[in-house]
Design brief:
alpha/beta, 404 residues, 19 helices, SAM-dependent_MTases_sf, Methyltransferase domain-containing protein, METTL25, single chain, Rossmann fold, Methyltranfer_dom
């Protein structure tokens, strides 16, 4: 794939819609809603619950406006990435105690690595947690492996796993407790260097992926799955490639948060919960704006899940108490307020469903920029979808190897 062409085409497609994806809907309501074409909103308002769910999955049931249809088709085409197909099944004993997500991930990563790592003899995992990947790589490939994490408790659990793995050559896996940072770290930097060395990062939060890339310039192979893009600093952490710099998009922290939300196929229950949570939260926001306009946007925080299932009055009381605010309304008045703004909260919800269509494209832009940076460093680079997004939604692998 030509990453530069793809990034250029995506930025051209996304730039005219930046008012939608770069701003928070709720924080800027009602101005934010005005950025959504009327035809899109009337179409979304015409959908029933099943239609809304289809829209959330990226489909356009019924008779969508042409502009929305062609945008989604183009976004779909430009975010499509090749799939890695292979699976290296774990033995029953190796899979024991791992959750379904971890088994799914490790089985695919092992298969992905096998044909690409013939010359690799040692590896390092940034944010290796309990070291499951490390342990199973040692078993499969007989590499020497260093698993680095700043969480000592996770590593201690990992050592327990290692003690239980009777057939494993234990001296081959070493846990290093430290925080990996930009800048020189003489104790660990050599681990990332050498054509026989592989550098791994399986779900490196935010800028940790960039730290991994910078430390691995002399590695034989780099494998990274990004996550938590909202932990990136929009001004500092992107674009990172020279080509990306010439095709800069107006990323904001709201856009970065949106990039973490690309996820397909919610179950009916998950969709219903999301709708309920949004409905309660939006009604509270409208209430606060009317009663306390001088406060502007008020952060309400996440409520315990069970609270969203209660009436609006119960949810609102809990949040208002936490905020130390008194609206002087009875339970019945609060519930009737919620009913009176329901068409507006639905509109805010529909704007979110429409805005979510940009999530995967923003993630792909971030990863294309990283892929191009690695090409600029002289690596041969692949971007592949590896995990089933229902199990592991941050499913795109960035794989870089030395051309020689
Ligand atoms: C999302 S978890 C992924 C864990 C593991 N790779 C996996 O796939 O299960 C991210 C891990 O990175 C670790 N981490 C985050 N920032 C780090 C840093 N700067 N240096 C070392 N470890 C870090 C966290 O402690 C956490 O264990």
């Amino acid at each position: 794939m030509n990453f530069r062409d793809r990034l250029e085409a995506l930025t051209l497609l996304l730039r005219p819609w930046s008012e939608l994806w770069s701003r928070s809907i709720l924080q800027n309501w009602p101005e934010s809603g005005a950025a959504y074409p009327d035809s899109w909103l009337s179409y979304a308002e015409s959908l029933d619950e099943a239609g809304e769910r289809r829209l959330d999955e990226g489909a356009l049931p019924g008779a969508p406006p042409q502009s929305l249809q062609s945008l989604l088709l183009a976004l779909h085409a430009l975010t499509e990435l090749p799939w890695h197909q292979g699976v290296q099944r774990l033995a029953v004993a190796d899979a024991q105690g791992l959750n379904a997500k971890k088994i799914h991930e490790v089985e695919r990563v092992l298969a992905l690595l096998e044909p690409r790592t013939r010359t690799i003899r040692q590896a390092v995992d940034i944010g290796g947690g309990m070291g499951h990947l490390a342990r199973l790589c040692v078993k499969s490939f007989n590499w020497t492996f260093h698993s680095i994490d700043r969480d000592a408790a996770l590593q201690e659990k990992g050592r327990d796993w290692l003690r239980r793995a009777r057939t494993l050559p234990r001296d081959k896996l070493c846990f290093i407790h430290t925080s990996v940072e930009d800048g020189p770290q003489p104790a660990i930097d050599p681990l990332f260097s050498g054509r026989e060395s592989a550098s791994m990062g399986l779900h490196t939060c935010g800028p940790l992926a960039l730290t991994q890339i910078r430390k691995s310039q002399d590695a034989g192979l780099l494998l990274n799955f990004g996550c938590c893009y909202d932990k990136l600093d929009a001004a500092r952490d992107l674009p990172v490639s020279r080509f990306g710099e010439a095709h800069r998009l107006p990323f904001t922290r709201h856009a970065l948060f949106l990039a973490t939300r690309g996820r397909r196929d919610k179950t009916e229950a998950e969709f219903a919960l999301m709708k309920r949570v949004y409905g309660q939260r939006f009604a509270l926001d409208l209430l606060l704006r009317r009663r306390f306009p001088e406060r502007g946007f008020v952060r309400a925080g996440d409520a315990p899940k069970a609270l969203y299932a209660e009436s609006f009055a119960v949810y609102a009381r809990d949040r208002l108490d936490r905020l130390g605010l008194d609206v002087g309304m009875t339970e019945a008045e609060l519930n009737s307020f919620e009913a009176s703004v329901r068409s507006e909260t639905r509109r805010i919800f529909l704007c979110h469903l429409l805005r979510d269509r940009f999530a995967r494209a923003l993630e792909v832009v971030i990863l294309l920029d990283r892929a191009i940076l690695l090409e600029e460093m002289g690596f041969q680079v692949e971007l592949l979808q590896v995990f089933d997004p229902r199990l592991s939604p941050r499913n795109i692998a960035l794989i870089a190897s030395r051309a020689d």
